[in-house]
Design brief:
Shape: globular
Structural class: mainly alpha
Helix content: 55-70%
CATH superfamily: Winged helix-like DNA-binding domain superfamily/Winged helix DNA-binding domain
Distance between the termini: 45 Å
Number of helices: 5
Strand content: 5-15%
CATH class: Mainly Alpha
């Protein structure tokens, strides 16, 4: 990556843009939050799925694969029938949760204003 990409959201190499491309889904944010609340314990796949309303098994699986690939989550498989799969945030993932918490706080404080602006512009 060139240093000129830093802070330039219009450059595909921009670190912020690359991060948002990876974690910008609601499923990622919810998954990280649940794993952070459980830390330092692990959470089984089935438990994650139960705690994330509306997520399909496939979407949760894809989300977790991405988080593992990016080093934000670790995966452990128990050799049972059927296999039990456990997930835990890494230190890097825990540091991301702090940033996501700031976004959640902003949303809680300002989404009513955003919704109101949407209603006003729709008139």
């Amino acid at each position: 990556m060139t240093s000129s990409a830093r802070g330039d959201l219009f450059d595909p190499a921009c670190p912020t843009r690359r991060l948002l491309d990876r974690i910008g889904t609601k499923w990622t944010s919810m998954t990280v939050k649940i794993l952070a609340e459980a830390a330092p314990d692990e959470v089984r796949f089935a438990d994650l799925r139960r705690r994330i309303p509306g997520v399909s098994q496939k979407m949760l699986s894809v989300t977790l694969q991405s988080l593992v690939r990016d080093g934000l989550v670790t995966r452990r498989v128990e050799d049972t029938v059927p296999p039990r799969v456990h997930y835990r945030l890494t230190a890097l993932g825990a540091s991301l949760e702090s940033a996501l918490a700031v976004l959640r706080t902003w949303a809680e404080e300002h989404m009513a204003e955003v919704d109101e602006a949407n209603q006003e512009s729709g008139r």
